[in-house]
Amino acid sequence: HCAGLALATRDPSNSWCMDTAAPVPPDLHQPVTAQPQGRDGGCCPAHLAAYSPSASARSAPSAGPWPPDPDGRTRPAALDGRARDDLRELQMIYQMADTAMNPRHTVGTIIGRPLEFYFGLKGAAKRARVQELLDQIEMGKGFIDRYPAELSGGQKQRVCIARALAAKPRLIICDEVTSALDPLVADGILKLLLDLQAQEGVAYMFITHDLATVKAIADQIAVMHRGKVVRYGPKSQVLAPPFDDYTDLLLASVPEMKVGWLENVVASRKIESAGR
Asked: In terms of DSSP bridges, do strands 228-234 and 220-225 run parallel, antiparallel, or are they unpaired?
């Protein structure tokens, strides 16, 4: 189930800031897929303020404390003040799998890092769990001793998914996880994430500019503009009129393929040619 969320923005200078005026959706305590969406320009799309180490156990800045869980429990603002189990509950899948993995480490080492860091698994027990995770992401045998350079783009992103799952998190932030993949591979990644959500009960928070991804996977949508939540609710409500000005602009900016466009272009060129 998803822990309480706090939305933050990342400004163009790449420093982290919390917008305390932004409303925190109260029902994100439920196991749903939350989808903040922003538009290019101004602040970047929202990130979660409470930020755990990546699966490689590196620390990252935090913009503030988590809001209380449904049971009233809160977490410290500083990472070094949180218990290791608090760090484990929030994991992240990055946009560029190439830069999210150490090219000198094997797949087994990459996925095994959180297993050792959070659960103390070593040796044969760790290797067996890594193989279970590889089976879960539909990669199976033969990959555990490979290096990232020996994988396709889709396979690399699947390894990053397995690394996030290895920590048994409550929430996974998915930061533009399909934007670097071709449409067919991206569709397979989205289907895999939905299957894993059904198996593990984990919540996702997607950060994306791709409306097709929003429609395919989100249960709840938060539209953000310059660090503020301007529209939030179930997908069916957020994507239905009447819209606020910014959401209307955001949706209108999405390119659409018109049926018969090619025939119209050919016809107009024939008319122009005939006129000459």
From this structure: antiparallel
| Residues in contact with 243: Cβ distance below 8 Å, sequence separation at least 6, in sequence order | 231, 251
The two beta strands, 203-207 and 47-48, are unpaired
Q: Hey, which residues does 203 pair with through a beta bridge?
A: 171
**Does residue 92 contact residue 167 with C-beta atoms inside 8 Å?**
no
Instruction: Give the burial string for 175-210 (b: 16+ CB within 10 Å, else e).
Output: bbbbebbeeebbebbbebbeebbeeeebbbbbbbbe
Higher pLDDT, 161 or 177: 161
Rounded alpha-carbon distances, angstroms, from residue 137 to 115, 205, 212: 16, 19, 23
Residue 68: which pLDDT band, with cuts at 50, 70 and 90?
A: low
Give the percent of the chain with pLDDT over 70: 74
Write out 66-109 in H/E/C secondary structure.
Answer: CCCCCCCCCCCCCHHHCCHHHHHCEEEECCCHHHHCCCCCCHHH
Instruction: Look up residue 144 and give its two tokens.
Output: 């555990």
- pTM higher than 0.85 for the full model? no
Q: CA–CA separation, 27 vs 233, rounded Å? A: 9
- Asked whether 46 and 38 are in contact (CB, 8 A), the reply is yes
Average pLDDT of span 216-227: 82
